[in-house]
Design brief:
Length: 122
Amino acid sequence: MGRRVLLIEDEPHIAEAIRFLLSRDGWSVASHDEGTGAMEAIRREGPDVLVLDMILPGRSGYEILGDLRADPALAGLPVLVLSARGQAEDRAAAVEAGASCFMAKPFVNSEIVATLRQMAGG
């Protein structure tokens, strides 16, 4: 069975680019485009890895990450945070909130694939 990833990303071009890259690498890719309903989408999809934008309509990625880490059934899910804000303090805030890894937009295609492979255990 292939690896599964859920993208919570509101920018359609970014979501489609990631979907293309990961599908080509053998991933099953699902997506959700807003903060509202994100936790339900995570539970429904049961991903191996979550890619989470921090600036979303409805709820922020920080709120979603907080809920995720507080839920015993989902607390161990690896989360790659994507953010247009790539300053050191933004990275630190994401890690403090529970991100497994942080990547600034724009990202390097090969880096996102390699990072998600590693996060999913190879």
